[in-house]
Specification:
Elements lengths: L1 H13 L8 E9 L4 E9 L5 E10 L3 E8 L3 E7 L6 E5 L4 E6 L6 E3 L3 H31 L3 H27 L4 H13 L4 H9 L3 H5 L1 H15 L10 E3 L5 E3 L7 E7 L4 H17 L4 E7 L4 H11 L4 E4 L7 H5 L7 E6 L4 E4 L3 H14 L1
Parallel strand pairs: 1-7, 11-12, 12-13
Antiparallel strand pairs: 1-4, 2-3, 2-5, 5-6, 7-8, 9-10, 11-14, 14-15
Helix pairs in contact: 1-7, 2-3, 4-5, 4-7, 5-7, 8-11
Length: 369
């Protein structure tokens, strides 16, 4: 009942924004190792959107200043235009930060308040990781030397340290109710690819202030989005174009069973999965199976070349927006391949199946209809 109540409230919580006045956030710093370019200061708006709140040009080893406006504490990325990656820090309204941006270990963004707490947390995590790796190495060396009694004792020390360090992190999170905690929990949820129920549980365990923060809202959005693509729920409808520009709407595709297959030309496991998928399609297409391949490519030629090379005979569609594909977001897809089996009434009846397990499910379901 707790989860149901929370789900019913997510729409309102996702739209919540603190109605405080905007205040400036300033970063003074220097860029090393790059001759010149442009810096952007970016903040999250929701799960899929960001906002650029400040930009400035820079020259190597010369000082820069970025100043943007925020109305609540938030995570910020400073990125170099046309470069991958970025520099993350926690910004609070009215605060000023000092930065050194480079590809080396001398990079930093320093400031008081949340950013200082964040840097202490990262340092603690690094210390824990180094100690854990050292204990793991000792255990592996003793085991390789067949010193099993010593290896067993080393493993006991390793497990004890894992529990101790895990408890330290839990205590740190339990002591906070803010955007920093929400960010850590949201990142953990995404990295571990928790489903709708897991995401909702993580959201429910946040305090009220963390829930109201931008990352709390994003966690709520994730839970709601993933819940929409859960087995037993109606399949989120969508319309995308085929390579020749024809619009295909999922609900308009008539079939006893449909497979929505999220894939991409650059995805090795997807390509390796295609021969088995072709076998399934050949065996059951005349019995009512249809497949809709949703490509997460951005390059049309690479997409169509992969379709031709792999000889994929079923419906192919794409937004050509890569991971920004709105349909991938609708279905909560964070890795490919990802498959959703849908019945004639456009309800999701299975997820996560591949290979022989997928074929057996298709065969059994068609026989039962």
């Amino acid at each position: 009942m707790r989860h149901l109540t929370l789900l019913l409230c997510l729409a309102g919580l996702c739209c919540h924004l603190c109605l405080t006045a905007q205040q400036p956030v300033k970063v003074n710093g220097i860029v090393k190792g790059i001759g010149s370019g442009r810096l952007l200061m970016i903040v999250p708006v929701n799960e899929t959107q960001t906002d650029t709140i400040a930009t400035t040009d820079f020259k190597e080893s010369s000082e820069f200043t970025l100043e943007g406006m925020v109305k609540e504490p938030t995570g910020v990325q400073i990125i170099l235009e046309n470069y991958s990656g970025g520099f993350f820090f926690f910004a609070e309204p009215g605060h000023t930060y000092e930065a050194c941006l480079s590809n080396g270990n001398d990079s930093y963004i320093r400031g008081e308040g949340l950013q200082a707490d964040w840097l202490r947390y990262l340092n603690n995590i690094q210390t824990i990781s180094t100690r854990r790796d050292s204990l793991q190495q000792i255990f592996e060396q003793l085991k390789a030397q067949s010193k099993f009694r010593s290896a067993s004792a080393a493993n006991d020390r390793l497990e004890a340290y894992r529990k101790e360090s895990g408890e330290q992190i839990r205590q740190f999170l339990a002591s906070r109710d803010d955007v920093l905690k929400a960010y850590i929990v949201y990142t953990f949820t995404c990295q571990n690819e928790l489903d709708a129920a897991g995401s909702l549980e993580q959201y429910a365990d946040l305090g009220p202030q963390a829930q109201k923060s931008i990352y709390g809202q994003m966690l709520a959005q994730r839970a709601k989005r993933l819940d929409a693509a859960t087995t037993g729920k109606p399949a989120p409808d969508f319309t995308l174009d085929t390579p020749d520009g024809k619009s295909i709407t999922l609900s308009s595709v008539e079939a006893r069973i449909k497979i929505v297959d999220f894939w991409a030309s650059w995805c090795g496991p997807c390509r390796l999965n295609n021969p088995k998928l072709k076998e399934i399609y050949a065996a059951y297409k005349d019995k009512g199976l249809e497949i809709i391949g949703v490509s997460l490519d951005t390059d049309k030629r690479r997409w169509t070349d992969a379709v031709a090379k792999d000889g994929l005979p079923w419906i192919q569609v794409s937004s050509l927006k890569g991971w920004k594909c709105p349909v991938a977001s609708l279905y909560g897809v964070s890795v490919v391949p990802a498959m959703f089996v849908i019945d004639a009434s456009n309800n999701i009846i299975a997820t996560g199946l591949k290979g022989d397990a997928l074929e057996q499910f298709i065969a059994r379901t068609l026989e039962q209809q």
